[in-house]
Amino acid sequence: MRRFRIAFSFAGEKRQFVEQMAGLLAEHFSKAEILYDKYHRAEFSRSDLAFYLPDLYEQEADLVVAVFCPDYETKEWCGLEWNAIYGLMKARKVGEVMLTRFDKVEGKGLRGLAGYTDLDDISPAEAADLILERLALNEEKPADYYVSGRHKTKPIKPQAAIPNNLPRLQYFFGRDGELQKIAESLAEDARGWGALIDGPGGIGKTALAVRAAESVPAGRFERIVFLSAKERELTADGQRALGHFVLPGYLEMLNAIARELAQPELTKLADLERTEAVLRVLRDLNVLLVLDNLETLPETDRDQLFTFLNRLPRSCSALVTSRRRADASAVTVRLDKLDWPAAEQLLAEIARDNRLLNEAGGAERRSLYDETGGNPLLMRWLAGQLGLGRCKTVAAALAFLRAAPASNNPLEFVFGDLLDSFSEAETQVLAALAHFTLPTTLKLIAELAEINELAAEHALVALAARALVVPDTEERRFVLVPLVADFLRRRRPETVAVAGGRLEQRAYALIVENGYNNHDRFEKLDAEWPSLAPALPILLLGPNERLQTVCSALRDFLDFTGRWDEWLALETDAEAKALAAADDWRAGWRANYAGWVYMLRSEAELVLVCAERAERHWSAAERSGLTVTREKSVAARLRGLAFKIQGQYESAIAAYRTALDLDRSLAPESVDVAICLNSLANAEKSYGDLDAAERDYREALRIAKNIPYPEGIATYTGNLAALALDRNDWPVAESLAREALSLSEALGRRELIAANSRSTAHALVRQGNAEQALPYAEKAVEIFTPLGSKNLKGALETLAECRRPAGEG
């Protein structure tokens, strides 16, 4: 009996393609009957190779498949294999040889006379089918004997690409057993939600997850979504940025899943409601989630994420990678060292572009493998030292590794070795980058390092050459991986702190200058936000007074740009900061605005908790001698908002009237009185008392005009327009909405512009002027969409009505 049913001859250039074909063919026979790997030195010596190959192909294989590609002739072993295969053909055993090729490459000595199967435009699955057909014909069976399904233990499924955002793999070798285990965990009848791949850093967890996702049979999932909490990936050539895949927490991952599923509106829901909403969407889909590097998430975020995965609908699955082991309803794949045959292939592939590693003998490469314990990350880094010319031999590179403490990882080792050799400019640049987790502009790096841009650019280029800093394609933005930043903070804390001080001062100036109610400057803050957000942790450690100023300046900006998560976190942290500084008055304001965020999310119970907390802080401030009449009104208003969300309109109206009495006790007419009247009118409108609502809207508008209060004038005019819409008074609604829109545009208030654009469109379309209404409806949707506004649904309905053909109801 022959040892192999099918044997391949190929160059490493096409290893991935052949490996996939071989895997599919092994589904029909057994893995042991398909020869596609290189020959192992354990079986025979190199001097015996020329004698072994003829027997292999003539006596041990039913069908030999030669895979020609541009690299085929350049490889010594391919030449020896071809000599044996060519010998078969000359011995009139052509039927036992199947010639395939890429790029129209021909076998040596055939002179264009042979027939080839071209592989350039077909998938590995299609190629495997052709091989099976050829084998069947050789055995005098029907061509479809193996591919028709009558004699297969498993069907071959076409490997059509499933829509995905998977990153590209640079190298992948071995791990056949792990891939099989993962494939079984993703089967439709699998019990758990998928597989958890864990293991030490650098062992290849991400690569395994990506390869497993790539290998999923067509039709199993309709989409694959890759998300990562990892900023950088270390390769033989240094660090590699993971770009828009980077997500630092549970909420960010949930938001990303929502956006990938074309449900961006879900990102603004409350935490628990957001989770439930995403799960509801997934129930109607077949999605594979690939969640990478979860050990970098805070513990509470990891717990939330695993709770989410445990509730995945059966139609969906997930692959998760983490250095930390977890108790999950999934198959656990413990990833250990790479085995030697796979590691040998990895080093051979790296050596193609690494002269010193290419010159190293087999014994030297094996010592590199043994000394690193088969860790791919360590092997790539040590090979990288050869490639960069730091070390001339494998032994020197290993000595380089042994110089570091046993607990050090490659980044710590390499960075520590280079730290003393950094120039002053390089050190300053690294200290500046230590505060950022996303790519940062050259201009900002230079500013924080207090050097000119040319000097900063030279320093960054030098650091990038050492694989410590990663530039974008245009080399205008740069980033440092978190591990390097952590190391730098430990080794050069003073230098990092100085750069942090500059970052904090710059952020404070920008926030105060462009914040508060300067809506026309919010675009500048939005553009600068990647440089402002990293300054917030530094501000939290600074003086309380400065932090409270930042909270006040950012409040409207964070609200109107939809950054509710950031706003809530800032208000909550600043409340604790104020209490620690015995600043009860400001602690009350921070609790109040935390309640506003919960109000925007319609979380009434938490709004009430914040109102109670604010009242408690302000009562403490009153006991210390401060007058807090206005603050008591604000707390009552916050309770009114919560009651309105709950549909308790009578309680809301009572709360607003209490607040109104307090405000009028301070001044008969004021901004606070106008705001309170508007809130009271909103509750009355929801209660169904439209006459009372109109009375109080108009009184609020009168006061706003007398003060004057431009934002109030625009807001209350728009509310009167919305009230006219409720009464189906389209002409009055149109007139008021156009007036409010003009006022809103003068203020630059985008959410008011959107609301009044929608009201204008609504009034026009109900008067039969759909064509005139359309641009207003489009503008409303355009603004509400990125804000994730709860008003988006109504705007979309109006837009649909504007686009509906005339005569359709």
UniProtKB/TrEMBL annotation:
Query: What Pfam families does the entry give?
Result: AAA_16, TPR_12
Biological-process GO terms, alphabetical: signal transduction
Q: Decide whether keyword Secreted is in the record.
A: no
- Which SUPFAM superfamilies does its entry note? P-loop containing nucleoside triphosphate hydrolases, TPR-like
Q: Which regions does the record annotate with the repeat TPR?
A: 633-666
**Taking every annotated instance into account, which residue ranges of this chain make up the domain Orc1-like AAA ATPase?**
172-346
Q: Which UniProt keywords apply?
A: TPR repeat
User: What are the coiled-coil residue ranges?
Assistant: none
- Name of this protein: Orc1-like AAA ATPase domain-containing protein
